[in-house]
Amino acid sequence: MINLLKANFYKMKKSKAIWIAALLSAIVAVYYIKDNYNIYHDSLELVNINSMIFNYLPVFGIIVSILISTILGFDYSYGSTKNKIIAGHSRINIYLSNLFSIYIVNLLVYSVYFFIICISGIVLFKNLTFNLEFIINILIILLIVLSYVSISTFIVMIISNEIVSPVINVINAFFLILISFVLLSALSELKYIHSDDGYYFSDEGQKVTDTENPMYIKGIKRDIYKLTVNILPTGEAFQKSRAMNTKSYVIIFFSSSLVVAINTLGIYLFSSKELN
């Protein structure tokens, strides 16, 4: 396993895509800081750094899919995977070494954004608090990034074609963003058109009943939407970036469950896969 990790990190060190992704993370961080600082300076509105550290996370899956496709996508065509097996490495170790090494790289890329935002919270906004919530938020970031990496690694390790797997990887990343955005938009609809309480008071002080919003999702359909959003890493990331009222333990549970499930399935399928 150690030799596999060394080989992976040596290959990744030469990848220009990683440095480009890190630079992009820095640019995104500066953009969010500038945008929020203008709001803070003009209206003195308090900037929520605990939400801001998640702003990049909903679309970070695209970066993950591109990096994994660039670094691991051609292992089959180059014969790297088959050579590792011939050299005596187990398929489980090959899969886990790829997963772990690419995870570390993506964490480093996201940490560029994370640390720039944190520094701005200390220097510019002066409201970064190192408390239990902050530690839990770091744990959530670690798990969501691992979820992205697990999904993309699964696709690359199971699909042998070096053209098909990167395409599916990138399409999947955009699809996860789209489906999470659509589901969250549907769930954010108010139950009543004027008021979530079902009534409001007119100018004369009379109680007026609102009409029910036809776009409001209810019943088992609403439960399915919520469950799907909580399972998808993009759904979790959107909820945290928007500072929604989702319990942290819910996100931690579903992220951990997804990571275990997708990697267990991936190792099983890769172990029984025919290599040409």
Q: What is the helix fraction of residues, given as a range?
A: over 70%
Terminal-residue CA separation: 23 Å
Number of helical segments? 12
What is the makeup of the main sheet? 2 strands, antiparallel
Strand order of the largest sheet: 1-2
Task: Please state the CA-atom Rg, rounded to the nearest Å.
Answer: 22 Å
Mean pLDDT: 84
- Poorly predicted sequence stretches spanning 5 or more consecutive residues: none
Question: What portion of residues belong to β-strands?
Answer: under 5%
Number of strands: 2
Overall form: globular
Secondary-structure element series: HHHHHHHHHEEHHH
Q: Which structural class do you get from the secondary structure elements?
A: mainly alpha
Account of the 3D structure:
- The model has no long low-confidence stretch (mean pLDDT 84).
- It is built from twelve helices and two strands, in the order αααααααααββααα.
- It has 276 residues and is mainly alpha-helical.
- Helix content is 72%, strand content 2%.
- The chain has a two-stranded antiparallel sheet with strand order 1-2.
Main features:
mainly alpha, 2% strand, globular
Short description:
The chain is 72% helix and 2% strand. The two termini are 23 Å apart. It is mainly alpha-helical and 276 residues long.
